[in-house]
Recover the amino acids of this structure.
């Protein structure tokens, strides 16, 4: 059979092109891990700063925000594993882990707020407390943008749910600023009341996240 240079060239082109391709699942996996890692770093730093102020102030409102931010940071771990394994089923189960973590944080925050209402305590370092609330807002907003953009780009309901959760957390953190201001003007019970309000918001976010993740499974 005579040698045909055009066939050889086509074969060479196809062969070279095939080796130049990158599996879309690998690209998606890497992008997901990067987004999750970035948000984990931001929220981890936010929670660490808030933990220092909580030790100084003893604010139950800040404790609620700290628990929530810390739990939100930890949800990045199962999400990152799911993306690393390139498993859509893993992403869905990671979404369930997100919901469970949010609910657990709401339960702890609510218990502490009720206990503080029954047994009121004075707060110290109110300026630092207000600053911690502002840090919580900034950290959550950054994490929310990272997760939401990646979630939409990668079509990941788990990332979208986590991003929405982080965005609401940012506004919730501003409640800590309000609590510090109220205590400063002589309303000591404002701190546990804000803690209860944060708990209510967390429960609402829990329901929204559950609908997002369970809706993705049925779809």
């Amino acid at each position: 059979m005579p040698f045909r240079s055009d066939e050889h060239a086509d074969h060479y082109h196809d062969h070279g092109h095939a080796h130049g391709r990158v599996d879309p699942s690998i690209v998606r996996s890497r992008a997901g891990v990067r987004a999750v890692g970035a948000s984990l770093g931001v929220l981890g730093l936010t929670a660490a700063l808030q933990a220092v102020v909580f030790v100084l102030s003893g604010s139950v409102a800040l404790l609620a925000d700290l628990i929530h931010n810390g739990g939100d940071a930890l949800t990045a771990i199962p999400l990152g594993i799911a993306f690393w394994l390139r498993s859509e089923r893993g992403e869905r189960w990671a979404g369930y882990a997100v919901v469970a973590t949010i609910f657990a944080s709401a339960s702890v925050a609510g218990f502490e707020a009720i206990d503080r209402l029954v047994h009121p305590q004075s707060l110290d370092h109110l300026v630092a407390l207000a600053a911690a609330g502002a840090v919580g807002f900034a950290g959550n907003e950054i994490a929310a943008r990272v997760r939401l953009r990646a979630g939409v780009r990668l079509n990941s309901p788990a990332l979208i749910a986590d991003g929405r959760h982080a965005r609401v957390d940012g506004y919730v953190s501003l409640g800590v600023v309000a609590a510090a201001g109220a205590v400063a003007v002589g309303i000591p019970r404002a701190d546990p009341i804000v803690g209860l309000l944060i708990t209510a918001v967390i429960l609402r976010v829990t329901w929204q996240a559950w609908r997002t993740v369970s809706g993705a499974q049925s779809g």
The chain has one domain: 23-218. The chain is about 85% helix and 0% strand. Helices lie at 5-20, 24-57, 60-74, 76-84, 88-118, 126-154, 157-184, 190-218. Residues 24-57 form the longest helix (34 residues).
